[in-house]
Amino acid sequence: MIGLRSSFLRTIQARGYLHQCTDLEGLDALLVKKCPIVAYIGFDCTADSLHVGSLVQIMLLRHLQQSGHKPIVLIGGSTTQIGDPSGKEEMRQLLPESQIAANMASLRKVFAGFLTFGSGPSDAMIVDNADWLPSLNHIAFLRDYCRYFSVNRMLGLDSVRLRLERGHPLTFLEFSYIVLQSYDFLELWRRAGCCLQMGGADQWGNIINGIALARKVEGVELFGLTAPLITTIKGHKMGKTAEGAVWLNADRLSPYGYWQFWRNTEDSDVGRFLRLFTDLPLDSIAHLESLSGAARNKAKWWLACEATRLAHGAKAARAAAETARKVFEEGTLGQEMPVLKVSAAVLAKEGLGLLDALRQAGLVRSNSEARRLVRSGGVRVNNVVVGDETRRLTFQDINAGAVKLSAGRKYHVVVLPVRNTP
Questions:
Q1: How far apart are CA 304 and CA 265, in angstroms?
Q2: Domains and CATH numbers, the chain
Q3: Which of 247, 304, 315, 334 could cross-link with 253 by S-S, CB 3.0 to 4.6 Å?
């Protein structure tokens, strides 16, 4: 690895973001010579929230801005209608335009905690490729741009090759995604002087095609940089847990649930995740990483608090930490704990089955999983282990206005009786 001079590349190298770069020495020289440069990462609107699997990309933009450069968040209002085949074994579900618009509006909220937006030279901006892709003339686009793409080369891209080798169909619609993302890069260079596209390692093929297109059409040399795809020490993909996706929007996952996700990090992942997902200085992280035994929990506490602060704000992070303290140290209910609302009438009459309660609360995915958890002694009601899978939650279980339902020692939900709930 060459000795890097630019603060941005030195930072992302030291913190574990740097995977591949089309011309590392050239990009380093440009970052030193010119400030700010403009760089972008694209996010499609396939859901109304991003999950922590997108955090590496968001943090790349954050470090770029902190180094004095200008980040662009490209939201794919048009490319979402097609779907990126990268990392997929089948075609993505096609969403109606109304759903894409709703998802886009929700996604914009995610970036507010990580980036500073405005009109200054290094202020971030959000753009939508629906501002230019729908207006392209199809025949003119094929003639002026698609002639630069070799089908032979595109068939060799991992996103295409792996699908074909596994016998999974690849539609022409998905195949065209590569061309459209490449054109996005060219268009952003024309509109904003954007010279760097970043993304996850699975985007390498799309990025280098955009660079090649800009060179052939405009004679300019652009740059590409990717971050590694992050997995846990156990090989699990970031953003996915047994309970489902770890969403960044508070209306999809409460700040307390988000805090708990980070607090439950495996010991071997703590140092790496502190470098990737927090702003803590590297020397502070080195100290936290050196802790062992029970003291390791201090590092996990810092990880949970700092990651939650970035996503949801300092107030939400403090409230989540205080709720966790009450739950684990005092065994009481915390105000920020996830809530399962249940009809008071149901609790007063027949009660709610324990297995159903666990499933509805999101603590398990199925009744069979709930049965296994009960039989293993992993379920507690108001901190008391329950071994009877036929047990029902009733009014007699209410303590201080609610019922505390726990799966293992880490996951807790407040069962709250309410009126007029179906």
A1: 9
A2: 7-227 (3.40.50.620), 254-330 (1.10.240.10), 339-418 (3.10.290.10)
A3: 247
